[in-house]
Amino acid sequence: WAVIDGFRSAKFGMTEKQVTRAIEKDFKLPMSKIKRSVSSLERTSAITIKIPELFGAGGAAQISYIFGHQSKDLSHINILWGLGVSEKVDTQGIVEAANLLRTHLNKKRYKEGLVLNAPVTETSTIVFRGSDKKGRMALILMTAPKPLKDENPADAAKRVSLKLSYVLNPKQPDVLTVKEGDF
Predict the structure, then answer these.
(1) Cys-Cys link to 157, which of 48, 91, 162, 172 (CB 3.0-4.6 A)?
(2) 79: Cβ contacts below 8 Å, ≥ 6 apart
(3) Helix or strand run (H / E) with residue 172
(4) Torsions phi, psi of 48, nearest 5?
(5) What is the pTM of this model?
(6) Quick one: which H or E segment has residue 9?
(7) Which alpha helices (DSSP H) does the chain contain, by range?
(8) How far apart are CA 12 and CA 129, in angstroms?
(9) For residue range 77-94, what is the model confidence (pLDDT) as tens digits?
(10) Cα(140)–Cα(120) distance, rounded to whole angstroms?
């Protein structure tokens, strides 16, 4: 059975300080390379790092460790490749990364919600989605924008992105919400 409990040494439920130590252990990055931010909409906080190459495909990756609005503990991890991370996007490398990650994650058994290569929109595809026995989810989403008017398809391909998310509680995320009956 799959066990989705975080990413590498960073585990769900850890504090920001514990995750920072896990990042230092996993990636040997100095503190100056760790950026902190706050989402004004969800009222979550995040620490984000950029890695020149996370594994043998996809190129540079940006990893965001997101801490819950109420719990202040690690509740979500996003790993992003492509547009927004690299100045020069390696489209083929991103597709290879998606395929390698899907194959790797699909080796395990999932309790519910297993989805492979399902189109969401004309430009987005769920490459993989699965939940473990505790309801924690892994999701790989690829976005490949259509060419803009008068744009070369090869140029549009440079705007591809891939996101791998690990989510502690996808049904009730720890974010600021409007409660039933408030409005």
Answers:
(1) 91
(2) 7, 54, 61, 62, 63, 64, 163, 164, 165
(3) none
(4) -130, 140
(5) 0.93
(6) none
(7) 16-27, 91-105, 153-157
(8) 18
(9) 999 999 989 988 899 999
(10) 12
Distances in whole angstroms, Cα of residue 170 to Cα of each of 89, 120, 130, 131: 29, 18, 11, 9
Three-state secondary structure of 85-131: CCCCCCHHHHHHHHHHHHHHHCCCCCCEEEEEEEECCCCEEEEEEEE
DSSP secondary-structure letter at 154? H
Look at the block and give the residue holding tokens 């026995």. 133
Buried b (16+ CB within 10 A) or exposed e, 155-178: ebbbbbbbbbbbbbbbeebbbeee
Do the Cβ atoms of 79 and 94 come closer than 8 Å? no
Cα–Cα distance for residue pair 117/20, rounded to 1 Å: 34
Reference 50, options 74, 25, 30, 33; nearest CA is: 33
> Hey, which residues does 12 pair with through a beta bridge?
none
* pLDDT tens sequence across 147-181: 888 888 888 888 899 999 999 999 999 999 988 89
- Spatial neighbors of 42 by CB under 8 A, at least 6 apart, are 69, 175, 176
Q: What is the token pair recorded at 106?
A: 């699909």
Q: Do 172 and 139 touch, CB atoms closer than 8 A?
A: no
